Amino acid sequence: MANPLFSFSLLILSLATMQGTHAVYYAINDKTGNSGGGVRFRNQIGAANSLQTMSAATNFIWNIFKQNNPSDRKNVAKVTLFIENSNGVAFAVNNEIHVNANYLGNYTGDLRREFNGVLYHEMTHIWQWNGNGQTPGGLIEGIADFVRLKANYIPSHWVKPGQGNRWDQGYDVTARFLEYCDGLRNGFVAELNKKMRTGYNVGYFVDLLGKTVDQLWRDYKAKYGN
Ligand SMILES: *[C@@H]1O[C@H](CO)[C@@H](O)[C@H](O)[C@H]1NC(C)=O
Q1: Is there a contact between 117 and 155 (Cβ–Cβ < 8 Å)?
Q2: Can you give the pTM of this predicted structure?
Q3: Per-residue pLDDT tens digits for 52-93
Q4: Residues near ligand 1 with C-beta < 6 Å?
Q5: End of a domain among 74, 100, 127?
Q6: What residue numbers bound the domain in which 159 lies?
Q7: 206 CB-contact burial (10 Å; exposed 0-12 / middle 13-18 / buried 19+)
């Protein structure tokens, strides 16, 4: 029989972050019922920690993107985290983050670290510009993992610096490459994101770093002897 405490499908807690007159509200909707992953989520992470991490991630991301003023940022009033029994790991859509409790339930290793890393990645999708839909998916995912890297939530399975086949392969490969680019020009990722507010052009790499992205990728590979 279902535990009556968790038999309702909706648990909402909210946390608001005041930023001047602008507030971002965070909510969590735990739809896991009595699944093993849901129980593990509530025992080892919990709603309050989740909301705090969402808020901390937001401030971290605004800082990485050098968005000091509300006018620099995407206009998002509320972000809702859904914990649900589904597939895959997590995704972000319509100011919602969806995390798969089955993934959490089966995770071996430091669950809090992994969960935080996933939230930093997904929260970046909430806040990053996407060039009005023109930015390649690999770059979008690479920036989300760049933020995760900068927050020091790097999973053990990630590629090492210099590894990978293409600059826009996405995720860890692109994140490592963006870290290299950021090393050439401090704040590069922030400036790239800013440019993507209105559109996307691969020439943004030339604008900011004076070289084509293909040349930068060759330089990057050469630096690590690949
Ligand atoms: C592990 O994953 C399987 C398949 O998604 C799922 O059925 C099972 O409930 C998960 N285990 C836990 C403890 O969440």
Answers
A1: yes
A2: 0.92
A3: 999 999 999 999 999 999 999 999 999 999 999 999 999 999
A4: 35-37, 102, 105-106
A5: 127
A6: 132-226
A7: middle
